[in-house]
Amino acid sequence: MGTKLRAALIGLGMMGRHHCRILRSLDQVELVAVADPNGDAHGAADGLEVLSSVEELIAKGIDYCVVAVPTAYHEEVGLKLAEAGVHTLIEKPLAQDVAGAKRLTQAFESRGLIGAVGHIERYNPALQNLRKRLENGELGSIYQVVTRRQGPFPNRISDVGVVKDLATHDIDLTAWVTRQPFVSVAARTAHKSGREHEDLVAMVGQLADGTVTNHLVNWLSPMKERVTIVTGERGCFVADTLTADLTFYANASVPTEWEALSAFRGVSEGDMVRYAIAKPEPLRTEHEQFRDALLGKPGADIVTMRQGLATVAVAEAAIESAQKGQTVQVSVPE
């Protein structure tokens, strides 16, 4: 690789235009080519020729590529980039199904290429800070993770339902902050807006260490909510990823003289702390980490394709659970 990494982008839609903006401003990176068979609706190319295919991008001699095309095309585009020896960051979810995600993972791993998935919520400052605090044992044992991700329907999504588009954020961030994989899920979905795919899911999960999780996700709410609550022996953390705020509610150990209450071994409300944390843009952090991984910098934190594959497996198990009306064990292909 030369002094600057030669980067390319395929997909200039709602997410692609933001990837384009970040790629233009990254140190040690030069955006040399962009492609979108549908053209450049948002004017993101800004002087660069808009190519029409991944083959044309590859012909430009690129070190890496960001893939922001619809989910249905992730596998096809990703496999061509792998065959050409191009390191790749693919928007989430990694692929439309487990089989496609497995093929992509194997294609990049077998060639020794760096492949990553754009699970942007991992890079939200509130969740980054939360994970460090959990790692430092500030909560003690973790009992439960609850997430709520609700809001109106985004017109850009047509090829997957709310489970694979939105719930994959919560599946990934839950496994990441707790460092525990999902082992089973039970879910219920609904179709309320006349579209082909589900637009609401309520899901209960269990992680490998026994932690219980709960995820409410929909495209039917007129208000927007993005919250992650982690409860443990010392209290609970509440991360609001819309505002990137992190709050801690402590369990108070206050002696009580009231006999009926003192016999009950529960918790009582203690101090509440709202942390002041730096708030860099999550997408920029995601790009910086991927660039650092390509440059071989130690500690670069990317969402690997193998992790992306595990997330798709959990999402598929949730859809299967809703169809069958029963709990489904999560099985991630080797």
Protein architecture, described:
InterPro entries: Gfo/Idh/MocA-like_OxRdtase_N, Gfo/Idh/MocA_Oxidoreductases, GFO_IDH_MocA-like_dom, NAD(P)-bd_dom_sf. The chain is an alpha/beta fold. The protein contains nine helices and 15 strands. The protein folds into two domains: 5-120 and 284-302, Rossmann fold; 122-279 and 311-329, Dihydrodipicolinate Reductase, domain 2 (2-Layer Sandwich). The longest helix is centred in the last third of the chain and has 20 residues, at 305-324.
Key traits:
nucleotide binding; six-stranded parallel sheet; alpha/beta; Gfo/Idh/MocA-like_OxRdtase_N; 334 residues; oxidoreductase; single chain; Dihydrodipicolinate Reductase, domain 2; inositol 2-dehydrogenase (NAD+) activity; globular; Rossmann fold; nine-stranded mixed sheet; Gfo/Idh/MocA_Oxidoreductases
